[in-house]
Request: fold
Amino acid sequence: MTDLLTVRGLRKSFGDLQVLRDISFDVPAGTVTAVIGSSGSGKTTMLRTLNALDRADAGVIDIGSVSVDFAQPVDRATLARFRAQSGMVFQSHNLFPHRTVLQNVIEGPVIVQKRPKAEAIEDAKVLLEQVGLGEKADQYPYQLSGGQQQRVGIARALALRPTLMLFDEPTSALDPELVGDVLRVIKDLAADGWTMVIVTHEIRFAQQVADQVLFIDGGVVLESGPPAQVLGEPSHARTRQFLQRILDPI
Amino acid sequence: MDASTWALIGRNLWPMLVATVTQTLPLTAISFALGLVLALFVALARISKVVPLSALARAYISVIRGTPLLVQLFIVFYALPQLGLVIDPFPSAVIAFSLNVGGYAAEVIRAAILSIPKGQWEAAQTIGMGYATTLQRVILPQAARTAVPPLSNTLISLVKDTSLASTILVTELLRVAQLAAAPTFDFFALYGVAAVYYWIICLALSSVQNRVEARLERYVAR
Ligand SMILES: Nc1ncnc2c1ncn2[C@@H]1O[C@H](COP(=O)(O)OP(=O)(O)OP(=O)(O)O)[C@@H](O)[C@H]1O
Ligand SMILES: [Mg+2]
Reply:
């Protein structure tokens, strides 16, 4: 399988704090990668560099046809193309509160990609149907539950037709009974063949959906492989400790 | 009040209304509009990470807020001519009031922009929006909710402050009242009428303000 995403030597510091020291991994097209690691290990930062929300200090990221070497100056056009490759779903959805669900979803296609509005609306309705929110198109975000808001966030990212979807703990801000709906939508996307990188603490979900698990620790990918291996028989003591703490917190 | 005072009031109701409609209201509207545009740019400069830009904006705001409006008006109309720059009364008033609104409203707009969570900028960025589009479509519409009440106060103050333009010979509402009252010293009657006119304008603006605020609240949980 060809790799849709390859990351080599990714580095990122905030002032004196070196968060990503040397991150490298590959994501084959059509697969799901789950990223795990302790709080503060840099999972969010890593995901944000993949969308250039945070600019990496060094490292080469190839997504689809776009390759960027962050050690070099990057021009705006390249950065825009790079960013357009991936859709980002935030931990706290970050929906536009002053726009309806439908308006949230068509904002990017119409305003940024300049697609015809009628077409964008048709697409958006299909997407909203897909995430189970066909009925909610004309509601404002405040009228939705947290899980529904998160699913609108997913539809908004999908509407731009990215090649790669990035999720940052999409369920960790949700009430437990709302988690399932969101995970189900992500599972469906996996079944549809979407390539996804998902930062998550849902170990069971990672086991079921992921083709590959990355354990990030100390600014590097300490361990990676199929879920059965990384989650089932981790080879590093750090990974074992981490899993133990998550699975048996008390 | 005797009959001649009532007659004087009656004779001046119309000219004072004309002064309101042709001078006071346009002066207010133009100055407020220009002032808001100026304020937006000053606010953005003030927020900017470009140090000279934010320092300049800060200095501007400080000068405007630290000096009397009357002095600002006099500088434009009476002092600039000494430098060879002669400007008519009405445009002088527009310049002074716009600069003044620009300073006060800048702080309001700045605070309103900063009240919008960082996640909104980031969400716009990930869907590919640039700075200007993000401001226009995401940030300012939300900031408006915070900014409208204080900006309405600025506008209502401005309506009343336009009376200061009488001191630089703009024949606005107060000036017409002054001129009409001068021959008979009937200040009480005519200033009273002027007060009522100002009051009516401010009442009308308050009601507009309430409607705008209600409209901006429509997407917020109650
Ligand atoms: N903008 C920033 N400025 C300074 N430090 C930051 C910034 N963003 C993140 N950090 C720091 O970088 C480290 C990694 O943060 P990050 O959010 O990537 O961790 P994480 O693995 O996502 O943690 P969590 O599981 O709690 O979400 C933390 O120590 C954090 O304080
Ligand atoms: Mg995180």
User: Anything to note?
Assistant: The mean pLDDT of chain B is 94. Residues 17-172 of chain B form a domain with the MetI-like fold fold (CATH 1.10.3720.10).
